[in-house]
Write a structure and sequence with these properties.
Elements: H1 2-18, E1 20-56, H2 66-83, H3 87-109, E2 116-146, E3 149-155, E4 162-169
Antiparallel strand pairs: 1-2, 1-4, 2-3
Domain Glycine zipper 2TM: 68-107
Keywords: Membrane, Signal
Pfam family, one: Rick_17kDa_Anti
Length: 191
């Protein structure tokens, strides 16, 4: 048993020593680009204009017209004096004078101006992440023929009309079945 194992080991080593390797060219039959789909994130933004009311300073009022204040105070004081009696007459005169001065000022200068508003436009920008699907080329599927047999592989570049192949020749063991010779391209096998 040990002899048979030793003989098999030596025979295998002998056959391996007999192997010969060389480079040859095989004819390229077709080249197809190979793609993969990838997700590419990007930011998508848009701008929109919005109207916003904005307060504008009211126009300056004219300086107080002293004549309106004095005249209003005198008229208000006279009216207040007519209404009251005793010590109430003095208070009514004072209240009438102050009220008359305020009314006289409003008549002479006009009422206070409310604030004014104008529409102002402002740009509002909103962004979001979106994902685009893109096709990226990963290589080429190359079909080639070598001595009547067809093979295919994926290569990083288009090899052109020929592709280099590494050929290894190893003698077959005694008594092994020999495959039939390759058929020429385009012929059908007939029995």
């Amino acid at each position: 048993m040990k002899r048979a194992a030793l003989f098999a080991l030596l025979a295998t080593a002998f056959v391996a020593a007999q192997a010969d390797t060389f480079v040859d060219n095989a004819r390229v039959r077709s080249v197809q680009p190979q793609y993969e789909t990838v997700q590419v994130p990007r930011e998508e933004c848009r701008s929109q204009w919005v109207n916003e009311p904005q307060a504008v300073a009211a126009p300056q009022q004219q300086q107080n017209n002293i004549g309106g204040i004095v005249l209003g105070g005198v008229v208000g004081g006279l009216l207040g004096n007519q209404v009251g009696k005793g010590h109430g007459k003095e208070a009514a005169t004072a209240v009438g004078a102050v009220t008359g001065a305020v009314v006289g000022n409003n008549i002479a200068n006009g009422p206070p101006q409310p604030p004014q508003y104008v529409d102002s436009q402002r740009e509002v920008r909103s962004c979001r992440q979106v994902v685009d699907m893109q096709q990226r080329q990963t290589g080429f599927v190359v079909s080639y023929e070598y001595h009547g047999h067809e093979y295919s592989t994926v290569m990083p570049r288009d090899p052109g009309p020929f592709v280099p192949v590494q050929v290894s020749i190893t003698p077959m063991a005694q008594g092994a079945a020999v495959p039939p010779p390759p058929r020429p391209a385009g012929e059908y096998y007939r029995r």
